[in-house]
Amino acid sequence: MDSKEKQIVNEHQQLTQSHEYKAGWSFFLVLAGVVTTIGLSLPVGYNIGVVNTPAEILKTFCNESFVSRYNLPLDEAWLNILWSSVVSIFIVGGCTGSILGSVLADKLGRKNASIATSALFVCGAALFLLCRAANSVEMLVLGRLLVGLAGGLTTSIVPMYLTELSPPSLTGAMGVACPMGVNVGVLVGQVMGLKFLLGGVEDWPYLLSVYAVLVIICLPILYILPESPKYLFIVKKNEIAAMKQLSRLRGVSSSILSEEVEAMREERRAAQAAASSGQRAWSMARVARDPRLRLPLLLACATQAGQQTSGINAVFYYSQTIFMQAGLSAMTSYAVKDENCP
Question: Rounded CA gap, 110 and 227, in Å?
């Protein structure tokens, strides 16, 4: 062994034994954050905010579709009910996706579940693009349901995936990527609905579906991202594959990552010990009864309740209608809404 090889070995041993190596930003970690934010989180926010601006145009389409297909003109009350269904079916899909997210992530893996979510977004966009040509309100409703389902899966799977990819020192930074993408998506959806962009009477199918461009661009990149090492190590119990993906993710030899590997081993041992002792899996009832978790649970529930009862969803979906009912003209309501977007 020459002097250069000895120096490399000594440096490697020093890093391993003294634990001086600290995982930080790497190419695949940054790529995962950017791709999931642009290709998954941003479309969630886009579909939340995009139906606000073209509401009256879409109501007209719904009414004309019912007249031409069923010879059934809708009065204002029934038209509002139908439009409320088109808007709120997104929430139904979102709740369902949030519940199914952990199941799908454990079944397919974090990365493959994200790819399946992207496919749902693309299917929803296709329905939006074709519903006017098919003169079908049902396709519009189904598209909203699919993107809602994809949105719920995204908000459940993507934060899990990113935090499992990141080292402990960066979990906070990676954790904000998903909500940041959602908020930016809401703004983009509002802006794209302006008349000089895609807010024209004939442009609404393109307005509803244009987010698919980002999804399609990011979808091939999802395939090359590493799978979550923690998922492979703890859920699939495939230590070799987990070490390989962790080494690829950090960009260093797996022998240098002894601290992270040992932390995963400890977590797996704790899970196995709990299972062997007959300890029940965590449920909402068990979480509520545990005094150590009561305060964090209360804070989380209070935060979510405050967010939902603040009326923010009404602003996302109906702000233009609210402004116009307050006596503002269409152009004035556009201006007020643009000032409030940030």
Answer: 7
Nearest-5° angle of CA 170, CA 172, CA 176? 120
Q: What is the pLDDT of residues 236-245, one digit of tens each?
A: 888 888 888 8
Distance CA 219, CA 116 (A): 10
| Helix (H/G/I), strand (E/B), else coil: 84 | helix
For the segment 247-269, the average pLDDT, to the nearest whole number, is 77
For the entire predicted model, the pTM comes to 0.81
Total count of residues recorded for the chain: 342
Confidence of residue 279 (pLDDT cuts 50, 70, 90): low
pLDDT for 52-95, tens place per residue?
A: 888 888 888 988 888 888 888 888 888 888 888 898 899 999 99
Task: Decide if 47 contacts 189 (C-beta within 8 A).
Answer: yes
Alpha helices in 109-176 (DSSP H): 110-134, 137-165, 171-175
Instruction: Extract the tokens encoding 228.
Output: 């979550």
What residues have CB less than 8 Å from 34, skipping those under 6 apart?
Answer: none
- Distance in angstroms (rounded) separating the CA atoms of residues 34 and 331: 35
| DSSP conformation class of 281 | P
Instruction: Select from 84, 113, 83 the least CA-distant residue to 98.
Output: 113
CB 53 within 8 A of CB 190: yes
Backbone angles phi, psi at 194, to 5 degrees: -65, 150
Average pLDDT along the chain: 82
H or E element in which residue 49 lies: helix 42-49
